[in-house]
Amino acid sequence: MSWLLNLYETFESNLDLVGKIEKKHNDQEYTLLPVSHTTQNAHIEVEITEDGEFHSASVIDKSDASTLIPCTEESASRAGAVIAPYPLHDKLSYVAGDYAAYGGEIKKEEPYTYYIKQLEDWANSPYAVAKVKSIYHYLSKGQLIRDLVEHKILYLDAAGRLIDKWDKNAEAMYGAKPPIFSVISGEQTSAFVRFNVYSPTKILTKVWKDQEICDSFIRFYSSRLGVEDLCYVTGRLLPSTDKHANKIRNAADKAKLISANDKSGFTFRGRFNLSHEAASISYEVSQKAHNALKWLINRQGKIIDQRVFLVWANDELEVPGLTEDYFSIDPTPVTTKERISFTNQEFADEVAKALDGYRNRLSSKANVNILVLDSATTGRMAVLYYRNMDKELYLDRLAKWHSTCAWLHRYRKNDNGEFVQFFGAPATKDIAFAAYGPRASDKTVKGLMERILPCIIDDRKIPLDIVTSAYHRASNPVSMEKWEWEKTLSITCALINRQEGFNVALDTDNNNRDYLFGRLLAVADVLERRVLDSVDENRSTNAIRYMNAFSNRPARTWKTIQDCLQPYQARLGKKGTYYSKIIDEVASRIPVDQFNNKPLSGLYLLGFYSQRHELYQKKENHDVVEASN
Amino acid sequence: MRNSIEFVVYGEYALFTDPLTKLGGEKLSYQVPTYQALKGILESIYWKPTLIMVVDEVRIMNPIRMESKGIRPIEYGGGNTLANYTYLRDVRYQVRAHFEFNMNRPEMAYDRNEHKHHNILKRSLQAGGRRDIFLGARECQAYVEPCVFGEGKGFYDGYGELHLGSMVHGLNYPDETGRNHLEVRLWNPVMKDGVIQFIRPEQCTQVRMIKDMEPKHFDETNVVSADELLTQLEEGRNP
Questions:
Q1: Does residue B34 surpass a pLDDT of 70?
Q2: Best interface-test mutation with B: which of A259, A386, A392, A453 has the largest number of B CBs within 10 A?
Q3: How many CB atoms lie within 10 A of CB A582?
Q4: Domain carrying residue B97
Q5: Closest Cα of chain A to B67: distance in Å?
Q6: Is residue B215 part of a domain?
Q7: Which residues of A touch B30 (CB under 8 A)?
Q8: Residues 216-255 of A with CB under 8 A from B
Q9: NCBIfam families given for it (chain A) (predicted)?
């Protein structure tokens, strides 16, 4: 199915969440907006009695300002000098009939007449409810500002005009600064008013939270929509629209996914003259699809440098993300020693087990959608990637990725801030840092993330330049701090292992030249480290310092490293024989004709890592034995 | 089927623009080719106003993949803009199609030599088409070769059904319908094991009128008949 149809279906299958306010981790509120509604920050709340008289008014606290308001196509995208009132709650210039009398500046015509006409139509329509009628009765009197001034919400200057901003003169007149001036950033005339109906006897739902009013407006407005046309998304005959939502990624986002204000770029002209000839989309589908998209982005989208990465399933929204590492999917503490002896097959089973939880939650016909959005210019947004795939296939691919691009990592912290070991695939973001350094710009990171997606979803090879770049960084430990290098190393091992399919556990039967060279380097490193640790020296070993040269000219550099090793072997004496034995054993297995200076492939990193890991395991065991003796 | 040909068309990129993304210029490809795009490829292989090409079915051989590129389209008023186009990547389609005579062109009746047209069509396919072949958009160069439909291994073999939602089927041009309108047809294709069976254009129920349009006129004065062409070939002119 097309992405718009899938978004539309997501809206339809989550109708119970429409209008429910949810909070993001940063306490920002978001909600699945109903059709023909939007949110605005209101400044003044006016209570009106059921028979249309002014009751009271108050200035709204900033924390409570966000209000769900009905809107029309025109008002949703109004800008500049366009007069397009919201149907119910709006700015003073629209809702106050006596706006001009109190010094409000009016461009060309009076907005109030448009507003009150629109409200009248609603109030007199068969879809109207009592509350709307009460509000209309009051507002048609055109005395809102007078009442607000009387109730000390708004303030006038000596000439009887609304004060622009709170200054010395005003202070002289009124004393302390009234609350209205602290909630509005601009002038009093720009205040946004919301209305509520007050009843002395009944407890009424707030107007902007009232489902009945919401439905009433949707029905009223859909009865007034334009001509029916074939909707390209659903294939049904429905009232169409040519105005589509912006603010998709955030409130300041002007980019639209569907737009057609373009007469000079000749994007559609030629065969077609007008935009509606090229395509048409129904109002309902456009609203629902865009509202669902905004909601999903707020809920679970990942935004990097304005590029949105979104994964969701139509009926069960939560699916394991593509860009996460295995640890965030299944953060159960892992006992690494056990994990190490795991073969890939066993680990793959583990991953499959973790993903089965998701598998069972998703209904049988659920599809997983993967969507990437970005905009090249401020006005337009493009779909950079869209896939709609069977959930089984998606989870299988995810399991395959996590079990093939896997290595032992130590850079993640758990909830207590302690470093934990985990086995699995690194997060795409971490891959970017491993390949391009920790100061890689967001632009680089988002580009890499988009390139990695097909590797996960389609089980394709990781682009060679990414692996090579990570390999070169991992081969140059002196250029970074220890923890960073360790992180780069384990991630690079994961990337290389994706092609090779090795285990972390040392493969003693492997006679690959590069792998053996890697093992040699590890023994040299561990041997020297042991001496350095015993005398409490913290400098890096020769093996590490020469690592870069070693990867380029292994035979020649190995001679240098071995020369440097001699004093340490001497220092260790008998304790060092164990290491020397390994060196002899490993080196003897490299055929003479291959003991040359041909640069090493990424495989040597696997040999290095596995051998080093093996030695540290052994050493711990060894120490335990010593202690017990 | 009578007058049918089977061919494979492949290319590195394809852009079967979703019309909704065409308006703003940030083009996004449909997941599979439209009837009209395949018909266009057929007409690039061999076209004559005498004939109507009908696409019967398409088999999607490679997995559906997408790749976006930053594009610098030229503004006709001067300068340029920036846009992201999202293409299908590395596509390969097997197509089965046939031609019928265009009964809305009685003036071309003199050219209805079925067997010859069929042979010309097959020869043109053998030669890789008479005109450039492209997949949806001009920058997506493609190649055609004869093949046996259904032969070879496809990615979606045994995949089951994939519902593709509402898609454009194609455009109705006045010379093919007899109505002086340009119309667009929508339909809801379902891909079964990688194969989409197209319904015929006149079977589409979701038809939308776009604008008035007159067919272009063809007759003996501006078309060389198949018979005449054969004579020319025999004489060694017009190779």
A1: yes
A2: A386
A3: 21
A4: 4-162
A5: 7
A6: no
A7: 2
A8: 229-235
A9: cas_Csd1
3-state secondary structure of B220: coil
Other Cβ atoms less than 10 A from the Cβ of A43: the count is 23
Q: Do B210 and A272 touch (CB under 8 A)?
A: yes
How confident is the model at residue B13, as a pLDDT?
96
Asked whether the ipTM of the predicted complex exceeds the cut of 0.95, the reply is: no
- Token pair 């953060």 is at which residue? A331
Last residue of a domain, one of A453, A478, A505: A505
Which tops the pLDDT comparison, B152 or A620?
Answer: B152
Query: Amino acid identity, residue A208?
Result: W
Task: Establish if A527 belongs to a structural domain.
Answer: yes
Phi/psi for A29 (5° steps) reads -85, 145
User: Is B181 domain-assigned?
Assistant: no
Residue A371 placed within a domain: no
Smallest Cβ distance to A376: which of B30, B65, B84? Answer: B84
Residue A280 lies in a domain: no
User: A69-98: b or e for each residue (b if 16 or more CB lie within 10 Å)?
Assistant: bbbbbebbbeeeeebbbbbbbbbbbbbbbb
Give the residue among A105, A67, A53, A64 at the shortest CA–CA distance from A193. A67
Residue B140 inside a domain? The answer is yes
Using pLDDT thresholds of 50, 70 and 90, give the confidence band for residue A450.
confident
Number of independent structural domains in chain A? 3
Q: Determine how many CB atoms are found less than 10 A away from the CB of residue A569.
A: 18
Instruction: Kindly list the residues from chain A whose CB atom is less than 8 angstroms away from the CB atom of residue B77.
Output: 264
Lowest mean pLDDT among A156-160, A488-492, B78-82, B235-239: B235-239
DSSP B137: S
Q: Indicate if A548 and A481 belong to the same structural domain.
A: no
Choose one of A189, A224, A259: the last residue of a domain: A224
CB < 8 Å from B in window 351-390 of A: 372, 374-377, 380-388
Of A248, A256, A213, give the one whose Cα is nearest residue A70: A213
Mean pLDDT of A598-627: 75
Same structural domain, A170 and A187: yes
Amino acid at A322: L
Same-domain status, A60 and A184: yes
What's the gap in Å between the CA of B192 and the closest CA on chain A?
14
Nearest to B41 by CA among B92, B100, B101: B92
What pLDDT, on the 0 to 100 scale, is given for residue A510?
85
- Choose the mutation target among A1, A234, A393 for the interface with B, i.e. most B CBs under 10 Å: A1
- A601 and A479 fall within a common domain: no
**DSSP, residue by residue, A178-189:** PTHHHH-SS-GG
Query: Is A274 domain-assigned?
Result: no
A68 and A201 share a domain? Answer: yes
Q: Is the whole-model pTM more than 0.90?
A: no
Which of A51, A49, A55, A46 has its CA nearest to residue A96? Answer: A46
Give per-residue pLDDT as tens, A508-558: 888 888 999 999 999 999 999 888 988 888 888 899 899 999 999 999 999
Instruction: Report yes or no on B100 lying in a domain.
Output: yes
Range of the domain at A120: 33-224
Question: Does A528 share its domain with A459?
Answer: no
**Rounded mean pLDDT of A158-165?**
82
Q: Which residues of B touch A267 (CB under 8 A)?
A: 22-25, 73
pLDDT, average across residues A431-460: 89
For chain B, the domain total comes to 1
Q: B208, A271: Cβ pair inside 8 Å?
A: no
Question: For residue B8, what is the domain's CATH number?
Answer: 3.30.70.2660
- Same domain membership, residue A399 and residue A460: yes
Q: Do A279 and B76 touch (CB under 8 A)?
A: no
Say which of B70, B81, B166 has its CB closest to residue A2: B166
The verdict on A458 and A525 lying in the same domain is: no
CA B210, B216, B219 angle in degrees (round to 5)? Answer: 155
Give the model's confidence band at B219: pLDDT under 50 very low, under 70 low, under 90 confident, else very high.
Answer: confident
User: Above 80 in pLDDT, residue A261?
Assistant: no
